Amino acid sequence: MDSDLNPQGWIWWPEREDLSLEFMRLLASAQEGGATFSECWLTASRIDFADDYSWYREWTATAEVNRERASSAAAQGHPATARDNWLRAMNYYLTAAHPVDLAPDERRSAIASMRECAANYLNCRQPRGEVVSIPWLNEFTLQGYYLPASLGGDRAPVVICIGEPGHHKEEFLFKLARHASERGMALLAVDVLGDGTGPSFEEVSLRHKPQRAIAPIMDYLVGRDDVDERRIAILADGWRSSFVARGIAFDHRFAAAVCDGGIWDLHMRAFLDPQNRPFGVEPCPELEADRILRGIRCPLLVAASERGVLRADRIAELTDRLRAGRRDRDITFEIFEAAEAAAGQGRFDNPTLANEFIFDWIASRIGAQPLYNRA
């Protein structure tokens, strides 16, 4: 299958939009250490789209080359090279697992290998990171990666980085961890996919709402002796639900939040509910979203993309409605425009540009300082 450029300048396989977007995510991750451009292009050149397993096979092969290189570097006492290669191997395994029609056995194998590479990366990092388990439900335990801010035992500010349901926390290790570390913050990367030993998230979500996972995550951090519980921020990566906004609306322990503030709920309710539904049958969208926003007491950043699922003017309209009558609240609205990149859904086309702004905003709200600037 031939590739081409779409009108927005992305590489495009016309018959596989899902894989086109995944390939662009992978290319963008190269600037954060999650891939190399040459390996991406070389691997893509070997893929035969007439073969259903070619995508999985080729990205797995590239991942294993990086994994072997990492193991060799670690054995020879070269931790920096080992770390870099484990990060890339982890990301290539994630790409291998991407196709929606991939067989379950292959997907499980790729995800298991990805998690092994992540654990090896944490062990080789300075300061060393941890694989942590966070109790949530009796049959479902959350898994996270905790990256300390420094080697010392001082209590540090922390940012929780959590992805939308279906998104893997491993991506945060190259996409977000550097930005937190350079600003003197510890990072907890977590997702709602579980540790892989119990039921699937899809099974659990039928009975439990994902926003209920936010409080146990905060409970875990507050219980650590190296965390400053007054300086904990949360960053919701992705923008297809308001579950983080709902989760923090009635948990007032957060010092700052980067999420949609309930805008997605406001949009979906307005889209799905007939305009003339009698009052009282269901909460009207404005009241429901207003309830969420009124519950969020900490400083809030709403960071969206011009080419995201919601149009920029629609997001601006909804944000203005949420901010009406609350001029005393610390609510920042930022749109990443196409002229500067970072304008795709989830800012996948240029995560660096967006993350610099986002983490500077977080640092300014929770008083985080670069380690080399401290007295």
Short summary:
With 375 residues, this protein is α/β, with parallel strands linked by helices.
What does this structure look like?
With 375 residues, the protein is an alpha/beta fold. The chain folds into two domains: 7-124, de novo design (two linked rop proteins); 127-375, Alpha/Beta hydrolase fold, catalytic domain (Rossmann fold), CATH 3.40.50. The chain is 43% helix and 16% strand. The chain has helices spanning 17-29, 37-46, 54-75, 79-96, 104-124, 172-175, 177-182, 201-205, 214-222, 243-248, 263-272, 285-295, 312-323, 351-366; strands at residues 4-5, 11-12, 130-137, 140-147, 156-163, 186-190, 227-237, 256-258, 300-305, 331-336. The N and C termini lie far apart (58 Å). Mean pLDDT is 83; it is low at 276-283.
**Class by helix and strand content?**
alpha/beta
- Global outline: globular
Total strand segments: 10
What strand line-up does the widest sheet have? 3-4-6-5-7-8-9-10
The helix fraction, in percent, is 40-55%
- Supply the CATH superfamily name of the largest domain: Alpha/Beta hydrolase fold, catalytic domain
**Nearest-angstrom radius of gyration?**
21 Å
Total helical elements: 14
Could you name the ranges where pLDDT drops below 50 across 5 or more consecutive residues?
276-283
Order of helices and strands: EEHHHHHEEEHHEHHEHEHHEHEH
* Mean pLDDT over all positions: 83
CATH topology of the largest domain: Rossmann fold
Major sheet description: 8 strands, mixed
Query: End-to-end distance, in Å?
Result: 58 Å
The CATH architecture term of the largest domain is 3-Layer(aba) Sandwich
